[in-house]
Design goal:
This protein is an alpha+beta fold. 34% of the residues lie in helices and 21% in strands. The strands form four sheets. Strands 15-12-14-13-17-18-16 form a seven-stranded antiparallel β-sheet, with helices on both faces. Strands 5-6-10-8-9 form a five-stranded antiparallel β-sheet. A four-stranded mixed β-sheet has the order 1-2-4-3, covered by helices on one side. The chain binds flavin-adenine dinucleotide. Residues 32-33, 77-85, 88-89, 100, 120, 142-144, 148-149, 151-153, 155-156, 158-160, 208-209, 213-214, 320, 414-416, 451 line the site of flavin-adenine dinucleotide.
């Protein structure tokens, strides 16, 4: 179908100002943040413009768009904050780009149920501020909070700073309204628990919009904490800090946020910093703080100055840029980087850390930091390299993934799959795991029009 014919059909569904085929608009949707921050094997070819950008205002319009797209076999890609790091929102095969940010209303705050019903394009920062007015907070707090949306975060099963306590975005979902690729609509029951068979919400959590477009979500809200303590400790090395964290969990102490980080790890004795945040009822927070201090002391942890700890926490949404700048690595043309967030069985974390540093050393790749985030098994490694080192970085990455799988871990716990990690899906899930996903996709999307080419390939 010609672009102008498509435009004419679409503006029968949405107001004319909500659709565009202007080149500069289409061009602005050709990528997500992954292309800025990361360099992948296909960096040059990953960008792709859609044929038309549409900003739907309601579910009915999306249903009609799907009916049209099925008739004409036109791909549809949902796009929200565009902050994804793996190319999942890139309209790889062109077609219709659904910019969901116009569907950004709070529909209901239910204070007794501790939940909020929203349209999916709502911004996290805005939603959190609105909830605070009712003495509630949003549990999800990623680096990208100022730009990411609820729909995008459910679709990547995103993880934030306070996921130790509040868990991933997906675990905060109570109910969803979803337009299926065929244009049919489902609404799951927004209930805190159900034993009525398959939990259909899970089909749309972390599946990057390949099974349906989320048009409404009911998510949990949490009580605004009475007190928040932000604490920082420095340990002689990663292992000492890590053991402290494991002991913390074994005692049943679950902070709101937890990050153990070792910057520029060169030897086994690079100091590691532990940042812990407790929030909740004042007396409980004070008791937790006292117990944490005792555990840290036992492993030689020195408490850091309160001011610098607080500053680090307050600047958490701009942490990456600051670190890159401090290291003189803020030139994305000269340097590329990856953050790998892998999930490991806790007993193998220390061994994996050593192995990952060894692999990066072998390929002469700069390691900016390693650490754990949210849970002792959630290990991260941040690397940076020049374009000339691209091939070596790719080899290092492949070896890291091999090691993760050898240890029984998962290769990504935070950012999703998108286009970038699709090639590892079979290794991660096995042939029959992928077979199930393909069969679900074929059953729900017989014309393969919804976000094709992401996560799995359908012939
Ligand atoms: C500086 C920076 C820091 C980041 N920090 C974190 C972090 O701390 N934790 C973390 O988890 N991630 C982080 N990310 C990655 C990113 O913010 C998350 O993946 C986030 O979940 C993406 O949300 P979004 O609204 O931008 O979605 P998009 O990038 O627009 O889309 C993500 C995926 O969801 C699909 N999608 C979007 N809306 C819908 C919908 N309504 N229905 C169905 N599918 C939909 C898209 O097609 C795509 O597949 C960071 C990114 C940046 C740039």
């Amino acid at each position: 179908m010609e672009k102008t014919d498509l435009f004419n059909e679409i503006v029968r569904i949405v107001p004319i100002e909500n659709a565009s085929i202007k080149d500069f608009i289409l061009y602005s949707y050709r990528k997500d943040w992954g292309v800025i921050y990361r360099s992948f094997e296909f960096k040059k070819t990953i960008e792709h413009s859609p044929d038309i950008v549409v900003k739907p205002e309601n579910t009915e319009q999306i249903v009609k768009i799907f009916k049209l797209a099925n008739k004409q076999k036109i791909p549809i890609t949902p796009y929200s904050g565009g902050t994804g790091l793996l190319g999942a929102a890139i309209p790889h095969y062109g077609g219709i780009l659904l910019d969901m940010k116009s569907m950004n209303k709070i529909l209901e705050i239910n204070e007794d149920d501790m939940s909020v019903r929203v349209q999916p394009g709502i911004n996290l920062e805005f939603l959190n501020n609105e909830l605070k007015k009712k003495n509630l907070i949003l549990g999800h707090d990623p680096w990208s909070r100022p730009s990411a949306t609820v729909g995008g975060c459910i679709s990547t099963n995103s993880v934030g700073y306070r996921a130790t306590k509040y868990k991933s975005m997906g675990e905060q979902v109570l109910g969803l309204e979803v337009v299926l690729p065929t244009g049919n609509l489902i609404r799951t029951r927004a209930i805190h628990k159900s034993s009525m068979g398959l939990d259909l919400n899970r089909l749309f959590i972390g599946t990057e919009g390949i099974f349906g477009v989320i048009t409404e979500a009911v998510i949990k809200a949490f009580p605004l904490y009475e007190k928040r303590n932000i604490l920082g400790f420095t340990f002689e090395n990663f292992n000492k800090g890590f053991e402290t964290v494991v002991n913390l969990f074994k005692k049943g102490l679950y902070p709101a946020s937890l990050e153990l980080e070792e910057e520029l790890p060169r030897t086994s004795n690079t100091p590691a910093t532990l940042q812990i945040v407790f929030e909740g009822i004042e007396e409980i927070v004070d008791l937790q703080t006292k117990m944490l201090k005792g555990l840290c002391e036992k492993n030689g942890g020195r408490e850091n100055r309160a001011r610098s700890v607080k500053k680090k926490w307050e600047e958490r949404h701009i942490g990456f840029q600051k670190l890159a700048k401090r290291l003189g690595l803020d030139n994305y043309v000269k340097y590329h980087g990856w953050d790998l967030n892998v999930g490991l069985p806790v007993p193998f974390v220390k061994e994996f850390r050593s192995k990952s540093l060894e692999i990066c050393r072998k390929y002469n790749i700069n390691v900016l930091y390693v650490g754990i985030w949210d849970h002792p098994g959630d290990f991260f490694i941040g690397i940076m390299f020049t374009p000339e080192q691209g091939e070596s970085a790719i080899k290092a990455h492949r070896e890291l993934v091999e090691e993760v799988h050898k240890f029984g871990g998962t290769m990504e716990t935070v950012h999703g799959v998108g286009l970038a990690f699709k090639r590892y899906m079979e290794k991660e899930h096995g042939i029959w795991g992928i077979d199930i996903m393909k069969k679900i996709k074929q059953a729900l999307d017989p014309n393969n029009i919804l976000n094709p080419g992401k996560q799995i390939d359908i012939k």
